[in-house]
Amino acid sequence: MTAIRVDGLTKSHQGFQAVRGISFEVAEGEVFALLGGNGAGKTTTVEVLAGLQRPDGGEVRVLGLDPRADRAALRRRTGIMFQEAGFFPDLTVAATVDAWRGFTFAPRPRAEALELAGLSGRAGVRVRQLSGGEKRRLDLALALLGRPDVLFLDEPTTGLDPEARAATWDVVRGLAGQGTAILLTTHYLEEAQRLAGSMAIMDEGVLVASGGMAETLAARAGRVAFVLPAHVRPAELPLPATVEDGRAVCRAEDPGLAAQTLLTWAAGRGLRLAGLEVRPATLEDLYLDLRHGEHALAGDAGRTL
Ligand SMILES: Nc1ncnc2c1ncn2[C@@H]1O[C@H](COP(=O)(O)OP(=O)(O)OP(=O)(O)O)[C@@H](O)[C@H]1O
Fold first, then answer.
1. How far is the CA of 299 from the centre of ligand 1 (A)?
2. Which of 54, 87, 187, 239 is the most exposed place for a label (fewest CB within 10 A)?
3. Which atom of ligand 1 has the smallest separation from the CA of 47?
């Protein structure tokens, strides 16, 4: 079932069009990554979905409801984690969770929420003494309190150390496994690739790519890279290559096959391909290709790449 539907959404701030007609859907139990550079319009989109801003145009539905008109009903079924947490610095972690539980419908027990967010050992600590990463985790604990059907996570792992980040990924996967639809914004492309089943990339208020993560990446060229052997010019290689930081890079739909071709060629000349790296396309490849103007050539905003 569709949990979030965005159809032709537009939204301006004081005459500036932050979101210019975007459409996407997130299914129940799906992790969806909304990506894009600073100012692309991600937070504006999430705020509209959370009912905090009124859309100028288009239609937005969360669990089949209108986020503004049905805000009260949706509040019980959605969890939100924004970039700027508004905590009381003098409350302890436990007191903060308890205060939040007071106005959450059917909240999880405090201990369970803290456990999920990896804060069990910090219950007695005052919020102002938490590290930046721990504050992010407290935010996550509060977003999870009401066992939401839809969860909005705006840069949930910014400032987290690698261990805490991996723990957050486990929590997100666990919730999706239980059927929660999760809309995540992040600047960490590896994180999005690992976590999300679908994604959309925004740029200046429009979607420049969207679709299933695996399908989108499988359709893109992967890469084979190696240290260009001494006295070999790129033009001599059996496949087209560019040179990046002293390494020859071949883009290929089937990188395994391309690597075989290159290794056979090298063996025939008694050469070694040092530092050989063979890998399928990553989200970072796609993102950087788009940043370098690929969508300007494609010209079809919102198409599936
Ligand atoms: N309340 C506001 N008033 C005026 N302009 C705003 C407001 N909120 C956002 N904007 C502008 O709208 C554009 C989109 O902002 P938004 O916060 O949605 O981007 P973002 O993709 O979330 O960026 P980031 O990754 O930096 O958080 C930006 O140019 C921003 O300056």
1. 24
2. 54
3. 18
